[in-house]
Amino acid sequence: MKIKSILISQPEPVTQKSPYFDLADKYKLKIDFRPFIQVEAIPAQEFRQARINLLEHSAVIFTSRNAVDHFFRMAQEMRVTVPESMKYFCVSESTAYYLQKYVVYRKRKIFHGKHKFEDLLDVIKKHKQEKFLFPCSDIHNDRVTAKLENLNVKFNKAILYRTVSADLSDLENVYYDLLVFFSPSGIESLLKNFPDFEQNETRIAAFGPTTEKAVKDNGLRMDVYAPLPKSPSMSMAIEQYMLSNK
Predict the structure, then answer these.
(1) Count of C-beta atoms within a 10 Å radius of residue 75
(2) Which domain holds residue 217?
(3) 3-state secondary structure of 186
(4) Does residue 174 surpass a pLDDT of 70?
(5) Is the model's pLDDT at 70 over the cut of 80?
(6) Residues 70, 22: one domain?
(7) CA gap 172, 169 in Å, rounded
(8) Are 58 and 157 found together in one domain?
(9) What strand order describes the sheet that includes 109-112?
(10) 78 plus 26 within the same structural domain
(11) Which of 162, 192, 214 delimits the end of a domain?
């Protein structure tokens, strides 16, 4: 059964240079984008209960743009002025550049990895004297904190926002040949919105081992997986799957 329609469980790309648009044009596909999860801010009043002082830290670790947004939001809500001496350690170059929304990039000490958190660890090792703050969601990857603990660096985990399921009720009678997921939260949202979901001929694509595990743990069939050496991106994995199932 050929794939003619795809639902990507993420926001629509802001640029037309997305490889998904190239896929749609090349193979005459209907590709829609719809976030399956949404982020809710934790208010400053609630955060204060964690007794974490932002200014007691000399460095911040960012693994997403959401973490960047909510760190500076929390600082503003708590009327804290983030010092120019603060160091920023970002999981990727794109996350590092996103900091320009809040700071003068060239005047700050900003470090970044290539894409994976493991790449950033090599940079963090060189700054073990810092006291790090790790802003994150209530649903986060414990692998990050475990690796920081293994490095014996001083850090605090700061939960600044919540990840919750989006309302997908308008999709109840809509069918797609392929559903694409990037986190376990996306799978959770699917089953929360559609508790009677039956996969049948619908293909499921999963990005990353934790998403793959969520698919299998919920008794679903995974048909497409990324990243792999020959398909490091999800768009490449989808194209390879389509070519092998003509």
Answers:
(1) 17
(2) 5-36+166-244
(3) helix
(4) yes
(5) yes
(6) no
(7) 5
(8) yes
(9) 37-41, 154-165, 131-137, 59-62, 87-90, 109-112
(10) no
(11) 162
pLDDT band at 141 (very low <50, low <70, confident <90, very high): low
Residue 27's contacts (CB-CB under 8 Å, 6 or more residues apart) are 239, 242
Residue whose entry in the numeric block shows the structure tokens 């329609």: 5
What is the structure's pLDDT at 6? 98
Compute CA distances 6 → 1, 35, 158, 245, whole Å: 13, 13, 36, 15
Q: Which structure tokens are listed for 62? A: 């960012």
Greatest extent of the chain over all pairs of C-alpha atoms, in Å = 58
Query: What CATH number does residue 13 fall under?
Result: 3.40.50.10090
State the average pLDDT over residues 29-50. 95
* Contact by Cβ (8 Å): 62, 88: yes
Q: Which of 131, 162, 193 is the last residue of a domain?
A: 162
